[in-house]
Design goal:
The protein is an all-beta fold and 204 residues long. The chain has strands spanning 2-6, 9-10, 13-14, 18-22, 32-34, 43-44, 48-53, 61-65, 78-82, 87-94, 100-107, 109-110, 120-121, 140-148, 154-158, 168-169, 172-173, 178-187, 192-202. It has no helices and 19 strands.
């Protein structure tokens, strides 16, 4: 609370002071936090991110934007954002006294559905690059992943993205050579089916 005093001077005549009381209210503490502890700089396309105003007050008003990212409303302090491309989200908080606070956060979307495999591996038991396997895990449902030799014989096959080929077939170490891989998988959560193929070099 502040007392404001006003006096006027006209031709060296000073008026009686006029006073008034001004109540000053703080700007609401406004900052965006990720509730599910996701790194907003590394969010997979299609994921839902739960965000919240840092300090929640039942007397405040909350406005999130752009509205296209908030499919189930944008006027609550905690909600889910569905962001399909890298962009900033904004939060505007209005206190019960009408004071306004603003914050923004940039959400960097990653194409997590992209699946990557190495082009060579060294199954020599040193604990480094011993297996030929999917490098990007967690956003795929593998329908079929197989490796064949140059004669078309399948030397490895799985539907588990956590498993990889150790360079053996029926307990026999395979020759140093170029092998061919084929993979059929579904991207989560979009449900899109993708088929890819490539080559890998076995080094001994």
């Amino acid at each position: 609370m502040h007392i404001v005093t006003l006096t006027t001077t006209i031709n060296n005549c000073i008026s009686q002071p006029a006073t008034d009381t001004v109540n000053v209210h703080a700007t609401p503490d406004t900052h965006i936090v990720s509730v599910d502890a996701k790194d907003l700089n590394n969010v997979c396309s299609g994921d839902s991110v739960e965000v919240s105003a840092g300090l929640i007050n039942p007397g405040y008003q909350y406005q999130w934007s752009p509205t296209q990212f908030f499919k189930h409303g944008n006027n609550v302090p905690k909600l889910y954002a569905n962001i399909d491309f890298s962009a900033s989200i904004y939060l505007k908080v209005i206190s019960d006294f009408g004071c306004v606070g603003n914050d923004s956060a940039y959400v960097n979307i990653q194409p997590c559905c992209n699946l990557y495999l190495p082009n060579a591996f060294t199954p020599n038991g040193d604990g480094k690059n011993d297996f030929f396997h999917v490098l990007t895990i967690g956003h795929h449902t593998i329908r079929d992943f197989r490796v064949v030799n140059r004669w078309g014989q399948t030397v490895f096959q799985t539907t588990d993205e956590l498993k990889g080929w150790d360079g053996y077939y029926n307990g026999v170490p395979q020759d140093m050579d170029t092998y061919f891989w084929y993979i059929d998988y579904v991207c989560n959560p979009s449900g899109k089916e993708i088929k890819e193929q490539g080559e890998v070099y076995l080094v001994r």
